[in-house]
Design a protein that fits this description.
Length: 166
């Protein structure tokens, strides 16, 4: 069993956090989609209202970062409460099975409760059976009736400029 400590990531952790993000992308076979940078991440982790927040899981003996959870706040109109959206949770493969993912998810749930959030939610790839099983064991409901909608790249630019063109 690996002993870990959890701590809030700071802007100075951006290079470490970005390496873990790259490892996540490799695991998900999505490395080609990683077009961001540690520098942009560092900027987005700062300010009065940062765009992203993260918790790092580090080994207690060496301080090596072996996992993370990256999240941001959203809002539920039906609950009229803030919520937390878990964008990514990842543990390096060689450290899985040590309770690190559970510790990260529990820590984030504790934060949501302490801050009066109405929900903690996230998405999972439909092929990722180990993750789905883990989330269900943690008490999460996987909602098959919901679909993610996303605008990126040219589609986002086109819609974002539509009123200017009309």
């Amino acid at each position: 069993m690996v002993s870990i400590q959890l701590r809030t990531a700071t802007p100075a952790d951006a290079p470490t956090l970005f390496r873990l993000i790259q490892a996540l992308a490799e695991y998900e076979k999505l490395s080609h989609d990683v077009v961001g940078s540690a520098e942009a991440l560092q900027i987005h982790l700062t300010g009065d209202r940062p765009y992203a927040n993260a918790i790092l899981a580090e080994t207690a003996d060496t301080g090596k970062a072996v996992g993370f959870v990256l999240f941001f706040y959203n809002y539920s109109t039906f609950l009229t409460k803030p919520g937390i959206y878990l964008e990514d949770i990842f543990v390096l493969p060689e450290y899985r099975g040590n309770g690190i993912g559970k510790a990260l998810l529990t820590h984030l749930a504790e934060r949501a409760v302490a801050e009066g959030c109405g929900r903690l939610e996230w998405s999972v790839l439909d092929w990722n059976a180990p993750a789905i099983g883990f989330y269900e064991r943690m008490g999460a409901a996987v909602l098959p009736e919901w679909r993610i909608c996303r605008l990126t790249g040219a589609a986002l630019t086109t819609l974002g400029r539509r009123s200017q063109a009309e």
